[in-house]
Specification:
Layout: H1 8-17, E1 23-26, E2 40-44, E3 58-59, E4 72-78, H2 87-97, E5 98-109, H3 111-123, H4 135-144, E6 147-152, H5 158-166, E7 173-180
Length: 185
Amino acid sequence: MGKGTRYPEIEKLLNKKDNGGRVLEIGAGAGKYSHIFTNYIGSDLPTSEYSEGEKLELYCDARYMPFKKDSFDLVFGVATFYLIENISEVFDNIWQILKPEGMLLLLDYTERTQIKIRRRYFHYGQEGHFSFWTLSELKRLLNHSGFGKIKKLLLYAPIIELARFIFRRPKRWLVVQARKKTYSQ
């Protein structure tokens, strides 16, 4: 996520997801969405540019989060997951810490936007890992980690999505919601 950038369309979606349950944000950066939730924990890598100055509750690798099984109702990340190399390990860990029927909300850039970001990185001599997924690839990865009820969400009303398509305004976000499967499913 850009330095402390708060996206209004994502804020609106997250407001709808707060049910008072326990929430974990992965790649929280400056914690710009913490005000939305009543029971929020923000996490980021200890090497994050935000680890100095900003005070998150936790600095750790998302593959090794120190939480007990069934700890969270919602885990989400904004412009985060595409930067993670071993995403299957992270999805496995998220599945462990989500409560039964808990929700993972993945809000990442579309492939088109990621390509633009990648070009910018390389132009300025920066290195970084970028994962590109189609929706079907992402569904396969999530299913493999034990998630079900996987669906793509729209950030805008359908009429606005149509207008964006007609006027060739590319979508910036890939938004996917998945629920932790329970053994009865």
